[in-house]
Amino acid sequence: MGGNILSPGEAASILFGIFFLLLVLRVPVAVSLGLACLPILLIEPRLSPMMLAQETFNAYNSFILLAVPFFLLTANLMNIGGITDRLMHFSRTLVGHFPGGLAQINVVLSIFFAGISGSSTADAASQSKIFIEAQRKEGYDDSFSVAITAVSAVLAVIIPPSILMIVWGGVLTVSIGALFLAGIVPGLLIGLVQMATVHAYAKARGYPTYPRATLGEAVRSFLVSIPALTTPLIIIGGKIFGWFTATESACIAVLYAGFLSLVIYREMDMKGLVAALADTGRLAGVALFCVGTASAFGWLLAFYQIPQALLANVQTWGMGPIGVGFFIALVFLVVGCFLDAIPAIIIVGAILQPLAQGVGMDPVHFAMIGIVSLAFGLVTPPYGLCLMIACSVAGMRIKDALKDTCIMLLPMLAVLAGIILFPQLVLFLPGLISPEFLR
Amino acid sequence: QAPITLNGASQFGDDHPYTKAMIRFEELVKRYWGKPINFVLHKNSSLGLEKQYFEYMAQGRAVDYAVVSPAHMSTFSKAAPFVDAPFIFRGLAHWNQVLEQDLFKPVADEVEKRARVAMIGYGGGGVRNIFFAKPVRNLAELRGLKVRVQGAPIWSRTFAAIGMSPTVIAYNEIYNAIQNNVIDGGENEAAGVEQMRFYEVAPQLAMTQHAITIRPLCFSVQTLNRLPTDLQAAIRRAGREASAFHREAESGADSQILETLEKAGKLHRVEFTDRAEMKRLVDPVMAAYAREIDAESILNRINALTA
Amino acid sequence: MLLPAPGAPAALRLLNRALAGAILWLLIVAVGILVIPVSLQIFSRYTTLIPSYIWTEELARFCLVYAVMLGAMLAVREGTHFTVDVFPRLTPKGEAKVELLSGVFILLFAFVFLWWGWEFTEFAFYRISELAELPLWLIHMVWPVAGLVWLLFEAERMLDAAAVLRSPGEKHS
Ligand code: NA
Ligand code: NA
């Protein structure tokens, strides 16, 4: 009935020590996270390995996570039902003549998807299905394709709607409306630097450019694509007119994509449908299983109050607002390497909040620094869910995509620095449209 | 020997009445027991949500005490959500009387038997109202509106009986759902409205006062049984008193929060004129529900109170 | 013409193939069903033809739990769980060694899910879910089942890897 047997320091070294050791031995990430918890659950009399089951169950038993398999299934149906092919052909007639045209579409489509989807996991998985194979066919390097697909997927949680903003707003009592507005400018800026990055790569590596399509060709492919092009319209329209919530809109996307594939384009049969369901289940299982053991790992960090212990003395350092901003970004970038973003917000966000308040940082500004940093964590190994998904779809090793990912992250980090240095980048829109949201 | 350490959990930060009640509980235990004891309170949902705290207390692991909504105990005892059901209380005075006379003891006993979690005090006192984007004053204006309710059968049944269209949506999707007109409104106490900033999207608060919350302070029976008897007594006493403090704090803070929001122009309280008629529509549903969960006698005794 | 399969015994191979087939079909059903409760939830708001059920949200969540766990079971057989691979490209024998080494830890993890997953299931006996009023142990049951299935799947993989190590020369590719 005494206190914990392990000190926070001991618990942290067991957790991280075993996690890294097992990763090196090529034990799957999800298993490594779970086994890292095991000794602690056995040692502490008030804990039990049954919590591994309990915490993974709690993680999967979430309505918000449903959007992930739904968006995955939508993409699978689009691929199998012939929708993707028609959209590809149409897009090529539009921007094929830019350097690295297909990769540019990859980024632009992510910006657009981000306005529909609030989940980067779903975006990474669906766009990996669409773009990696297509880019491979057109002669792009695999590592480049994987990297650009993964880093552009992070836009889904920066541009509204965003699961992370909803979680952050709920946990730290920040206006979700303000967060949504605040995410627009940083999201577009990051998209822009990604397009510039693609341009630079395409120039350097001579990625393909297509001859400009004739007007007739463009019109023809546009007409064929109209039913497919209305998918985002239905989702956006549904949100504007209030037909369904964010999670539900993912389900609508499934129904519509299924309808097109079965009834309009008629390229999908029963066999194709079953294949799409199986594929969705396989990838959702792998991607979401990780989230469960990562949650258990994070739960133990919280139980020992390890983040508190690490950050206890920060307030005595006497940092100014900019120093605090960079510090917060650094903490979330590091945390994002090991934890899923949602547990990271719950565990670390509340601890950093007093620090931000102490230097008079606007809560919306603080939130955006955190959310953008955590979004980058989706592509930073060892626990970089979007990168793992893209690699898995491409059949690549993370190690081989790492260099291009890091190069692409550099200009994105510059945008993050810009957000820290110029709070107006995030506060401008909320201040303009609904100043009452800001404190 | 190391001093006894107890672990608590709260979904909220220091300013929330639940957290304050638990901190008061810790202080009172220390005072009444008089020997060294440590409390570790895990705040801001760091150990999960109330439902999970309850499961951990039931297992006798990780969490020893927490304030938990009775709705989260329903997997152990079907009768538990009855404690917090809508339209039971006529007002704060009635609510106070029910708690003073401990009329929910049979439910608490069942929960303790099945889940091995003791309710050592009844906190709460938040009055729940329905928030909309437009003013809603009476039953006619309420009819057919899509309102998000808590995921327990009694909530959707009573709201349907009133003529609303109860909708089940995840708690963290309410804000967006109202903003996008997926639903017309939701219902919550003042602390929840403030915490989740529902007033940003639904500033018209129809004062239906359809429920007054009860939030028991729970303690794991397995942990409790392992403690020295004088400490057990101190915990029971401190639980009662901390919860009384919680009730007073929350029912007081409730109107204060609304007043502050109203003064800042963020929220408007809209008088609801048909509360009695609404209660009349719900009564048969409540009676049927009480029959279903064997809580008829409790309901009759509650209704018989004079306050 | 059947050659004697090296590595895992034929019975285990057969059992696992049947198991994987069953799991795949359950997975397909779980993902397919996922769409139904959520669609009901949406359309019931717009037409009185579809009654507004309150269990839709819970049923969808439980299908998700099943889908994730079933998908995770298959991923062990197919070796598709995400890894962070820091080794250089290895020879087939090297690959087999790594498979055996990491396999030990997967077996341990599977045992944890089997043993304590059973305790987790016991904890759910006599409890019903909040909305759909389903027996909760039906959901918790997936944890020990996953543990058991992983033990079988990983055993086959490891026996095959051991066979590669035993085999002379570098014929395998
Ligand atoms: Na993309
Ligand atoms: Na988004």
From TrEMBL, chain A:
Keywords: Cell inner membrane, Cell membrane, Membrane, Transmembrane, Transmembrane helix, Transport. It comes from the Bacteria. The chain crosses the membrane at residues 12-42, 63-83, 103-125, 146-168, 174-197, 218-237, 243-265, 286-306, 326-352, 364-395, 407-433. The keyword Nuclease does not apply. Residues 16-425 form the TRAP C4-dicarboxylate transport system permease DctM subunit domain. Its main location: membrane. It is a multi-pass membrane protein. It is found in: Cell inner membrane. Part of the tripartite ATP-independent periplasmic (TRAP) transport system. Belongs to the TRAP transporter large permease family. The complex comprises the extracytoplasmic solute receptor protein and the two transmembrane proteins. NCBIfam families: dctM (TIGR00786). This is TRAP transporter large permease protein.
From TrEMBL, chain C:
Keywords: Cell inner membrane, Cell membrane, Membrane, Transmembrane, Transmembrane helix, Transport. The chain crosses the membrane at residues 18-39, 59-77, 98-116, 136-153. Pfam families: DctQ. Residues 35-161 form the Tripartite ATP-independent periplasmic transporters DctQ component domain. Its main location: membrane. It is a multi-pass membrane protein. It is found in: Cell inner membrane. The complex comprises the extracytoplasmic solute receptor protein and the two transmembrane proteins. Belongs to the TRAP transporter small permease family. Part of the tripartite ATP-independent periplasmic (TRAP) transport system. This is TRAP transporter small permease protein.
